[in-house]
Amino acid sequence: MSNIPDIASKDGGALSMGGPGPRHVAIIMDGNGRWAQARGRPRLFGHHAGAKRIREVVEACPKLGIEYLTIFAFSTENWKRTQTEVAGLMSLFRRYISKEMTALATKNVRVRFIGDRLKLDEKLVKLMDNLEVETEGNDGTHLTVALNYGGRDEVARATKRLARDVAEGQLNPEDVNEETLPRYLDTHVLPDPDLVIRTSGEARISNFLLWQSAYAEYEFIDTLWPDFTAAELGRLCRKFGRRDRRFGKVKT
Ligand code: IPE
Ligand code: IPE
Ligand code: MG
Fold it and tell me: Ligand 1 pocket check: which of 200, 208, 222 to mutate, most ligand atoms within 8 Å of Cβ?
């Protein structure tokens, strides 16, 4: 029997068969622009609606057995959007972090950010740093927000740090392997994602968690991010529980 409760139905999920749910879920929150467009509204309206969905999803995690939730908020490629959209998103992030995120902090959520902070506005970085410190002692859901994050950029920055350690004699090149390299990634304290969800019907990963998702299960769903619910997350977790993860082995 599934140990993942069905938070949308009255049977508590007892009818859905399956194994354990995902410990780490990563979400590419896509489709805000199209959601707004469909309503004849500017793209930023969709981003605001999208941001409002995050709380319900975070709050559903303990019930679903999800210990780590990582959400893609802004990619290293998203700077290519119009100045209006980028500025609007940055202002949304500032507002969101100071208001909504502080509310999450009191709910035992531990917040972390991944991505390159050097290219972000100083005021925003300060808010990010503060929230990380503020929630450091929380031992509930680990929420990681990918902001100015790109998988390739992350690997390049990691390699730079690794090369420095080699040059300074802190690391022997012979010791560079699958265990040591990820210690240099932004995600070094996180387990690899078990399930990666992308909303909005696009079947691509757009530079998200390239190294870490090597063995993740993927779900590409049509729902636009502002329409995503905890019930849908529950459904995807139960589906995950029914999957056979072989990691290269043959089923015995
Ligand atoms: C995802 O929604 C949010 C960000 C990338 C910041 P989009 O803005 O990409 O929405 P669509 O894909 O244009 O609908
Ligand atoms: C990926 O979505 C980035 C985020 C959700 C933050 P995009 O909308 O930027 O991805 P592409 O451009 O469609 O690949
Ligand atoms: Mg998009």
Answer: 200
